[in-house]
Amino acid sequence: MQDFARASALYGFDSLAEEYGLPHKALLKEVGLPENTLDHLQGLVSYRRFLALLELSAKQAGDPLFGLKLGLRQGITVLGPIVYLLNNASTVGEALSELRQYFHLHMGAAHVEVSAYGDKIQLAYRVLDPKQPGINHGAELALGVGRKMLKTLMGHNWTPHPMLLEHAPQAPLQAYRDVLGIVPRFNSDTTALLLDPEELELPLSEADPALHQLIRAHLDTLQRLSDLELPGYVSNLMRDLLPQGRVKVDQVAECMAMSRRTLQRRLGESGTSFQKVLDDTRQNMALRYLRDSQLQVTQLSDLLGYADLSAFSRAFTRWFGMPPSRWTPDNIG
């Protein structure tokens, strides 16, 4: 699922957008993301649409440093359970090594590297498809997050080293200095934060070896289960799309910025199919609405995207062994 990032990568987007007077839900909708994306931060979003959102927001805000400011605002919290692993590593070097190992659980569209860079160590950010529009905003956001992460790990007295960016400045250099306190090195051969080698040996004061081992085991489990999250993400999309009419595989694939064939293949690898996810989603929605609302059967049929009432009635009978006209809350526990 290389095009995906956790929706947590948009943590704080709503508040920053509103500071610029921008309606965050309208921005999400314009780039093809569900308006309730920020209500499900553990879900997945298309990285291409994530970049499009940053680019659109920067343009409408009139601030080319929108992405950088969002990354600095987010800091380490966007990494979810990976945060606890890093905080309980024994040294900065161990924390960065584990960030490299588990970063794909946060974002499948990019990875981080920890390697030598001259006499320094680089914490580099690599996007798998660097030709995407908005990539510069994404890079600045990532390094903003990385800078706050290093300050969290090494303490507030840590003095930042240069920030390297492969692109040209998106704003006057003074604007970067005002935000960062330093001016990044632009047009570099890497996108990275630099550290002194000895900084990797710095111990982390909050390290708890037992808790560290427990969290690592949890992340290893998540790593094995990550492919199983795709059906849940598709189902969430269907819930948003069904009230607008019939949901088709091409429509969902477009929302996820992947081809129809790739979506079907990925669902097959997860042990299901598009039709099964659609059927299960409709069944769960039908049960919830019948229990918790006063909708008429005809209204429910429309809400679930059926072409006509008879098609809904046949599906309902298959699910629950009776037509919707005979259903009562006591029929199903």
UniProtKB/TrEMBL annotation:
Q: Name one GO cellular component term.
A: cytosol
Task: Output the superkingdom of the source species.
Answer: Bacteria
Q: Name one GO molecular function term.
A: DNA-binding transcription factor activity
* Keywords tagged on the record: DNA-binding, Transcription, Transcription regulation
All copies of the HTH araC/xylS-type domain together span 232-330
Annotated Pfam families: Arabinose_bd (PF12625), HTH_18 (PF12833)
Q: Does the keyword Cytoplasm apply?
A: no
- Please state what the protein is called: Helix-turn-helix domain-containing protein
Specify the species: Alcanivorax sediminis
